[in-house]
Automatic annotation (TrEMBL):
The keyword Transcription regulation does not apply. Residues 10-70 form the HTH tetR-type domain. It comes from Amycolatopsis dendrobii. Residues 33-52 bind DNA. It comes from the Bacteria. The keyword Metal-binding does not apply. SUPFAM superfamilies: Homeodomain-like, Tetracyclin repressor-like, C-terminal domain. One of its GO terms (molecular function) is transcription cis-regulatory region binding. Keywords: DNA-binding. This is TetR/AcrR family transcriptional regulator.
Length: 195
């Protein structure tokens, strides 16, 4: 029996994640049936579940993949940049990412087991945000009258509010100045600088 290369396995896994992202965004978790997952990925159930134990493992892997991508942006440019990318549609899968994010939020409210499994994964984004803010503080760019943990919670709350705003179908094209205000809120105000 021929051996399959790691590159081939990685490409197949990526194909499954990309196709299932579209499926979960369009139909939600419950509506993403095995048949729909097969259609979205172009693969059989055997191929899909060779890589992922079950539908929940697939969904968690997808949500984790999105969280890793977000954490990478946060580490380099900050959480507000994640929000700007979402508004501008600059992320690789902006609409599908939003659908996945909304489904994660819904399941966190309704599924205690999922909440427990997701908690360890969501911590990555919080840590990336906190690390970025600590770095900004050491560089003298971050206000020093508010604890970094409070600023982290503030930015995460703004992100959740933005996701909710977009989920309601409200326009996001005029929110750039709002994100400017959010950024300005966490910056250090230097004496003599314009306010």
């Amino acid at each position: 029996m021929p051996r399959v290369s790691q590159d081939h396995l990685d490409a197949r896994r990526r194909q499954i994640l990309d196709g299932s992202r579209v499926c979960f965004a369009r139909y939600g978790y419950e509506g993403a049936t095995v048949r729909r997952l097969e259609e979205a990925t172009g693969l059989s159930r055997g191929a899909i579940f060779h890589h992922f134990r079950d539908k929940e493992s697939l969904f968690l892997a997808l949500a984790e993949d999105d969280a890793v991508r977000m954490a990478d942006v946060v580490a380099e440019q900050g959480l507000v940049q994640v929000m700007r990318d979402l508004l501008a549609g600059n992320s690789e899968h902006p609409a599908d990412w939003l659908g996945t994010r909304l489904e994660v939020s819904r399941r966190l409210r309704t599924d205690p087991e999922f909440r427990g499994r997701w908690a360890e994964r969501s911590q990555q984004l919080t840590e990336a945000t906190r690390d970025r803010l600590e770095w900004q503080r050491k560089a003298g760019n971050l206000r020093d009258d508010v604890d970094v943990s409070v600023l982290t919670a503030f930015l995460e709350l703004v992100l959740e509010g933005l996701v909710s705003h977009l989920a309601m179908g409200l326009p996001g094209d005029d929110l750039g100045p709002v994100l400017d205000l959010v950024e300005e809120t966490v910056r250090r105000h230097r004496p003599g600088a314009r306010s």
